Amino acid sequence: MTSNLLLQVENVGIQFGGLKAVQNVNMHMNKGELVGLIGPNGAGKTTTFNMLTGVYQPTEGVITFDGKNLKGLKPYQVTKLGISRTFQNIRLFKDLSVLDNVKVANHNLAKHSILSSIFRLPNHFKGEEKMDRESIEFLKIFGLDVYKDELAKNLPYGMQRRLEIARALAAKPQLLLLDEPAAGMNPQETHHLMELIAFIRKEFDLTILLIEHDMHLVMGICERIYVLDHGQLIADGTPEEIRNNPKVIEAYLGEEVIE
Ligand SMILES: Nc1ncnc2c1ncn2[C@@H]1O[C@H](COP(=O)(O)OP(=O)(O)OP(=O)(O)O)[C@@H](O)[C@H]1O
Predict the structure, then answer these.
(1) Is the ipTM of this complex over 0.90?
(2) With contact defined as beta carbons under 8 Å apart, do 48 and 13 qualify?
(3) Are 128 and 206 part of one and the same domain?
(4) Which of 59, 152, 234, 239 is spaced 20 to 30 Å from 112 by Cα?
(5) Whole-prediction pTM value?
């Protein structure tokens, strides 16, 4: 039997000292879905991403990705399985070129062996050329190829955010986790980002989970939305259901306006 289920989070929780940052969270994602994870500041959204990517080990519950239990896996092992992410605070290699930032991500998965790289055997050059070509193709999709030799730190802010996504994609994930991709963007940049997310999802056959405070973006592109508050899921449903959910409205009172 083939299953459409890609990610399953069952009764997951984590405790830091006395603080239950996340508790009893149940979520699932089917292949190809674009799902939002929202909630007020400190609700546990990034902590959930950290558990999905092996940065933190849950103290309770089970996370299964593509039929495999993620328990005990390190972040690089989770990336290899097919989960990539971006960070709330941009984490690029600021003193590397735009091209090298993407190549570093691609490199982790490169097929040629370490030995052939060290001794610069013909395989290494073939691998390197292929990686250059692939990485430039990625950059084109993001409108970043014109900046390929620029240092990442010199890119305009909105472009740095795009480069983060390009870099996450270079690792060839099945599941892409975006942590506040529109943070700090102006409305026009956010609009372009929405188009880009829709495009890459289709182009790369991705499943996407995104954390975002920009409700226009979340409501505009997500099919389903999970809402966290004080570490617990208080709602899940379509954008329309979430917009009208009294618990959600209450959690957000005085924080944001849900359009
Ligand atoms: N390593 C840690 N040690 C102790 N407490 C932590 C740790 N990581 C997160 N927390 C706490 O867990 C709670 C949830 O934080 P988290 O960053 O996941 O919230 P968030 O929903 O992503 O918030 P924001 O929207 O502001 O980014 C907070 O109270 C935070 O202080």
Answers:
(1) yes
(2) no
(3) no
(4) 152
(5) 0.88
